[in-house]
Amino acid sequence: MRKIVLAAAVATSALGLAACGETADKAGETVDAMAADAEANAEAVGDAVEGAADEATEAAGDAADATAEAVEGAADAAVETAEDAADAATEAVSGE
């Protein structure tokens, strides 16, 4: 969508320059310069999107790591509680 709008703006500008008495060569150079600017802007947007995607991926990885650590901690606590309960049951049965 943005490319279409940029292309229309470039074409409109080129026609406007040609209608104002500019030579075809000058108008062509202007269109080329405008196209180069549009391409540079598109690349900058692409780089920004790529950077945002990288940051989102990193954040998701960090969240997964934190979740794994929390699950591991909960599992360790459950094992410890089960061991304590088994020790208590053993003591109750043996009468100690």
Give the helices and strands, then pairings.
Elements: H1 2-19, H2 24-94
Quick structural summary:
Helices cover 93% and strands 0% of the residues. The chain is mostly helical.
Task: Outline the structure in words.
The chain has 96 residues and is mostly helical. It is 93% helix and 0% strand. The protein is built from 2 helices and no strands.
What key phrases describe this protein's structure?
single chain; rod-shaped; mainly alpha; 96 residues
Instruction: Give the helix proportion (percent range).
Output: over 70%
> Could you report the average pLDDT, rounded to the nearest whole number?
78
What is the string of helix and strand elements? HH
Number of strands: 0
Q: In whole angstroms, how far apart are the ends?
A: 80 Å
What's the alpha carbon Rg, rounded to whole Å? Answer: 33 Å
Strand residue percentage = under 5%
Structural class: mainly alpha
